[in-house]
């Protein structure tokens, strides 16, 4: 395998997501996770529409099968997957959640076989395994995690597994749409984003503890400049690059490269002179080796 458009897009997407994660830390979260999901999706969709108009991109999907794949991908990957991810964070915290999320590449590889009948070479699977192990080592907490009540722990684990599954399934479904016809990655990203955002908006509307009006507002949010930057890079550019990567490479390979985003966050932290552990260095090097094996398979 050569380093092609898909692999480069996945690497840049991972870097963009890592940077946007740091940007999100710069503003106080005045919205609930679901409200923030709607806010991000709405603003990113506007950005994508403007990009389509400016670039005069007329390559919208014409096959009904492509629309089915993309809408399902948005509902499962963005609406259900993101909601499950946020629920996992609330129940078991980021460390445990990210560890379970690291298995998304393997899930994507299995779903790719079941849903699309596409198989990877054993060398590629070896690269995926090495990368996952590297990420797990790098994400290992510096100290023992606090014990949780069994009910909360089990619920959090199930949410994290659901998030990993939905994330992988969303990627494979996007690939199914790309296989159906050669449509624009920007249009595919827009359809996927709108379907996912609409589903979350309906949920926010139905749940009394959330406010749809608050979710679609922007001017009252503190630090909205940082939020807008995070949405531009993390959702608009990141999701666009994600669809480009899936279009030109295998979903399991793309998902493996996406999984290195936490390592890039650690690298940025190292540059900013934040503390770095031996596990971070060892895991990062191992993950880098795994990605190298994956790209050379």
TrEMBL record:
Domain EamA: 5-138, 155-295
Keyword Nuclease in record: no
Residue spans crossing the bilayer: 6-24, 36-55, 67-86, 98-116, 122-140, 152-173, 185-206, 226-246, 252-271, 278-296
Keywords of this entry: Membrane, Transmembrane, Transmembrane helix
Domain of life of the organism encoding this protein: Bacteria
Gene Ontology terms: cellular component: membrane
InterPro entries (UniProt xref): EamA_dom, EmrE-like
The protein's name in its UniProt record: EamA family transporter
